[in-house]
Design a protein that fits this description.
Elements lengths: L5 H25 L1 H4 L1 E5 L4 H8 L7 E3 L6 H5 L4 H7 L14 E4 L7 H12 L6 E5 L10 H4 L4 E3 L21 E2 L1 H14 L6 H16 L5 E2 H11 L6 E2 L33 H9 L4 H4 L3 E2 L14 E4 L4 E7 L10 H8 L3 H7 L14 E8 L2 E8 L5 H22 L2 E8 L2 E9 L2 H7 L11 H16 L4 E8 L13 H17 L3 E6 L6 H10 L3 E3 L5 H13 L1
Parallel strand pairs: 1-4, 1-5, 2-3, 3-4, 8-9, 13-14, 13-16, 16-17, 17-18
Antiparallel strand pairs: 6-7, 10-12, 11-12, 14-15
Helix pairs in contact: 1-9, 8-9, 9-10, 10-11, 15-20, 17-18, 18-19
């Protein structure tokens, strides 16, 4: 039988993604409060407008700007009316009238606003969200606190296909499933895909019920569960379940277990119709998510979010809520917040000081502006260049740095390279984002000699501290086999070298510098695992790793 043409398969997947998006919005209209909402990751286009036009809930949809103030969100003092009438007049909160909040540019939603909206949702004060995510880069996305409370994450592929007129195709009813069995199946399925949040199976169960209501049924069926799993789980999956291999049958049970009661077996933990549900979720996993998934039974830890640390500034960046303070010549006053703080006290102050004209403002009313800005990230590669395997390790480090640097133009990462061998450490590549300069500096790297691991860590810490003072966010990536034999004073003392390395690792951790330990030895070294614990850093054992594996490990550990 001839294979299906790639274009036909792509068109089928595109049509299916748009069908699922439209179905999700129809289900959301049935139970917006119970399903929480939907994240729609699309740029502004007529196709997006057409998709949003299919959402027809019973409640009105109101736009909630990400710049909304606390007074507008929770209700507060109407400053203009209060000053005009000399009486405290309060505004109504955004959610005082039931509505579905549509948040444009949700990928730019400040964490503080995301936390406030999540708290309102947990208190059942909201009726659902439409989070319009227009992000381009992978790290530009809706805050997790909000996205986790929304049942659906919609990202239709390609152009919207034409929809023929008429009624939608009928869906087979399937086999009836009790609510208890549905809870068990959806919970076990979530565990198979590494979904640890209990919101996911809860939202999936509500989705199944909404699907049954949409089809005028009063009971759940396996079709409802399949639709719910395929709409709720794909974007939340963190692992890909391993397929059971029929080639290796399980060994027969011991003879003494034949008399065991049937109720004591582990069959109660089996997932009924699990293959069908798993395949339904697998088929809808986003292609850009597969590279970040790990096999079942493994874990992935991370430090860092793929961007620099957030710093508080008084001059530029994303606005933060203002705070009380004194004018010191360097901070900027928030005039509106200052007037709002002074407004409730005007009648009382007017009684105490009737001769003074205008507004009565005291130093306690002063509010200062604050801004948050992200610093660039610096990857400090600290590479062991000692011993006979130095050429191989440095070659892979060169390839990894060049691959990471090619991606640094979008993420604005800086890279520096420190090599340690013999009795000293040397900075071979200063912080840079220049690909040409990097290739020149990495063209020839020396190797051989002892392993001054402590000296390498010391140099990495000094480099990280120096660049952090310049506004960068450093992360140390240690690549070594862990066989330290040169102490800080340059003597060949293996015991003292290990103690000095531990001391330097504790110093890095004390300075709050993020780190990552990559073990390049043929077998995982317990000493490096202990060093990673001291650093409070992820430990990755990569024997005989090539540049692509090393780059993937660094990216997965740093970007999460």
């Amino acid at each position: 039988m001839p294979a299906k043409h790639p274009n036909k398969r792509r068109n089928t997947m595109t049509a299916e993604s748009w069908h699922n998006a439209a179905l999700a919005l129809r289900l959301l209209a049935v139970d917006p409060a119970g399903l929480g909402g939907a994240v729609i990751r699309m740029r502004a286009s007529p196709d997006r407008d057409a998709l949003l036009a299919t959402f027809r809930p019973a409640l009105p949809v109101r736009k909630l700007p990400i710049s909304i103030s606390d007074e507008q969100l929770f209700g507060g003092i109407d400053l203009t009316a209060t000053l005009a009438s000399s009486q405290v007049i309060e505004n109504k909160s955004f959610f005082q009238r039931p509505c579905i909040a549509q948040v444009p540019m949700a990928e730019r939603c400040p964490p503080a606003l995301a936390a406030k909206l999540s708290q309102l949702a947990d208190q059942s004060l909201t009726q659902g969200f439409l989070l319009i995510d227009e992000g381009i880069e992978p790290d530009e996305r809706t805050p997790d606190a909000l996205a986790d409370r929304c049942a659906f994450h919609l990202a239709p592929e390609g152009r919207k296909p034409p929809v023929p007129a008429g009624t939608p195709p009928s869906v087979p009813a399937g086999t009836e499933v009790s609510t208890a069995d549905a809870v068990v199946q959806l919970t076990l399925l979530a565990a198979r895909f590494g979904i640890t949040s209990l919101r996911a199976p809860t939202l999936a169960l509500r989705t199944a019920r909404a699907h049954a209501v949409l089809l005028d049924r009063t009971h759940l069926t396996d079709t409802d569960l399949e639709v719910a799993a395929s709409l709720v789980y794909p974007q939340r999956a963190t692992v890909i379940p391993e397929d059971d291999t029929p080639d290796d049958p399980p060994p027969p049970p011991p003879a003494e277990q034949d008399d065991c009661p049937r109720g004591d077996s582990d069959e109660k933990d089996a997932l009924p119709d699990g293959d069908m549900l798993i395949d339904a979720v697998k088929s809808l996993l986003p292609k850009n998510l597969l590279d970040g998934l790990v096999p079942a039974g493994t874990t992935r830890t991370s430090q860092g979010s793929g961007a620099g640390q957030k710093r508080t500034s008084n001059r530029r960046g994303r606005p933060f809520p203002s705070r009380p303070g004194r004018l010191d010549g360097t901070s900027r006053i928030d005039l509106i917040a200052t007037l709002r703080a002074a407004a409730p006290w005007q009648p009382l102050r007017r009684q105490q000081q009737p001769d003074r004209a205008g507004l009565l403002i005291t130093p306690a009313d002063i509010r200062l502006k604050r801004y948050a800005e992200h610093s660039d990230r610096l990857l400090v590669f600290c590479v062991d260049a000692s011993g006979s395997a130095a050429v191989s390790r440095l070659g892979e480090a060169k390839g990894a740095i060049e691959l990471l640097l090619a991606e640094a133009y979008a993420s604005r990462d800086h890279v520096t390279l420190i090599s340690f061998r013999g009795t000293e450490a040397e900075t071979l590549l200063p912080p840079t984002r220049s690909l040409v300069q990097t290739k020149r500096r990495l063209s020839a790297l020396p190797g051989g000699g002892g392993t001054p691991l402590a000296t390498g860590l010391q140099t990495a810490m000094l480099t990280a501290l120096q660049n952090r003072s310049k506004g960068l966010t450093p992360t140390v990536v240690l690549i070594t086999d862990g066989r330290a034999n040169i102490a800080l004073d340059g003597t060949a003392n293996r015991a003292q070298a290990g103690a000095d390395a531990t001391l330097m690792a504790a110093g890095l951790r004390g300075q709050g510098i993020a780190a990552l330990v990559i073990d390049m030895s043929n077998r995982p070294q317990p000493t490096l695992q202990a060093l990673a614990t001291t650093l409070d850093a992820p430990y990755i054992a990569l024997p005989r790793a090539d540049a692509h594996k090393l780059t993937g490990a660094v990216t997965a550990a740093l970007d999460g």
